[in-house]
Amino acid sequence: MPRLRLAPLDYAAAMGFLAYSSSAVVTPIALLILARELSFGLAAGGLLEVMRAVLILAVMLTSAFAAARWGKANVLGVGSLVLGCGLMLYAISPTYGTILLAMGLVGVGGGFVEALTNPLVQELHPNDSGRYLNFANGFWSIGVLVTVLIGGELLTQGVSWRFVVAGVGAMSIVAGLLYLSLRRGGVVVADVTSRHVLGHKRDILLARKFWLFAVAMFLAGGVEGGFTFWIASYLQLHYDALPRAGGIGTACFAAGMIVGRIGGGWWAHQHRLRPLLIGSAAAALVMSLLVPMAPNLGTAYVMLAFAGLTIACFWPSIQSYAVDRMSVDMTSLFILLSCAGIPGFAFTAWLMGIVGDHAGLHASFLILPGMVVLLLVTLLVDGKPGNERPSSTVER
């Protein structure tokens, strides 16, 4: 297997994923403290994720037009800056309602980051995107790991959640500046009009195979979102643990995802993506059943690490596999698939919050094995693994 050859913008993508993932988990690790300070319940906490996701989804649907007009690197830079400013507003918000508004701004910036980072990496490495996408997405998990460990420790030591959120905002602003400073290293593509973008989206939405991959992305996003959003709160409530323990649990899950994605970056050549996805889904089913059965924190940490390892490849590998299986515009396909994954992430977080309010978070974690079963069935339905598009051909 040849070594990875990273372009300058790969480093910007890595930093962007670090900041973006930190913005996604900073609320979960501080959620119980937020709920006590501002007087709201678990369902209202899940609604914060829904607000973020709704704005992410809305922006993603328009991001292809922005990328066609100004270029992916420029839009990613501005999006990261908006994300950082939203987090700064979040950090000074005095009420739950103000935080909801700040989460809207976080969603706007995050929408551009979510929509265009993977297409940028695909554009930089069109012939072997599976490896580079898994590698780049590994930094999402690194961001989760760093944030939950440092944030959980700071919260345990009595540092205000406002300083933790502001720190994540500063990191996102740095990512935005890095994108803008390296933007000339991007791939130059032909001008694309709005009419072309709409035509690409229409062709994709009319393809039956797209809807199969969209369902897979929804379920994959849901499984990842359920674990990522609720691990910290679950461990604190179920084991009567400190915020530090919740952060460590989320960090164990993230560490497993780091190993899975960085390892996938070295091993997951295009022809290996389908068996990797099916095998990982089967293993994820086992681990999602075992996590709620953990008798103590130590066992839960181990099981969460293995759970993260088994689901690590889902998001980037489904997208890369879909690009190979469909002869359509790459950027629009990535965006529309992410538009399916983000609602899965948010819906599952919200649904688990509702179940948690009525039956406890332990019961809500039983939703995840069912989603993994549906994902495994969807992957098996896809049929023979042959490509419809040569791996060296990428439409821009």
UniProtKB/TrEMBL annotation:
Subcellular location: Endomembrane system
Family according to the record: Belongs to the major facilitator superfamily.
Residue spans crossing the bilayer: 12-34, 40-61, 73-93, 99-121, 133-155, 161-180, 210-233, 245-264, 276-294, 300-318, 330-353, 359-381
UniProt KW keywords: Membrane, Transmembrane, Transmembrane helix, Transport
InterPro entries found in the cross-reference section: MFS, MFS_dom, MFS_trans_sf, MFS_Transporter
Topological relation to the membrane, as annotated: Multi-pass membrane protein
Gene3D superfamilies: MFS general substrate transporter like domains
Domain Major facilitator superfamily (MFS) profile: 8-387
Naturally occurring in which organism (per UniProt): Natronomicrosphaera hydrolytica
Protein name: Sugar MFS transporter
